[in-house]
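Page 42, continued from yesterday. The earlier attempt failed because a stray header line got pasted into the input along with the sequence. Redoing it now with the clean sequence only.
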Amino acid sequence: MWFLLSFLASTVLAILAYAQARNFVTRRLRYVDAVQSAIAPWIAGAAVAVICLPIVAFLPLVGVGTALTLGLAVGAGVAAGAREVRHKLPGY
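This time it went through. C-alpha cells are written below.
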C-alpha cells in the first residue's frame, strides 16, 4: 500500500514539474537565448534534482528516486518548452 501511495505521489509531482517547466519556458523565457542551448535542460534537471535530494530525505513517502524523477521531468519540460518556442518564432 505504501509503495502505491509513494508511486502516485512521485507521478503526480513529475507531471506537475514537467507542465510547470514547459509553461515557464514557453511564456517567460521565450526570448532568452540561453534556454535554446542543448545543455539548458541538463542544467535545469540537475539543479532540481540536487535541490530536491535533501528535501526528500525528510519526507516519509518519497525518496531519492522521486528527486531524480523530478529532475528528469523538469529537464524534459525545459526541452519541450524550448522546442515549442523554436517552432513558433520566425527565423528558426
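Notes: Residues 19 and 77 are 6 Å apart (CA to CA).
Reminder to self: strip header lines before submitting.
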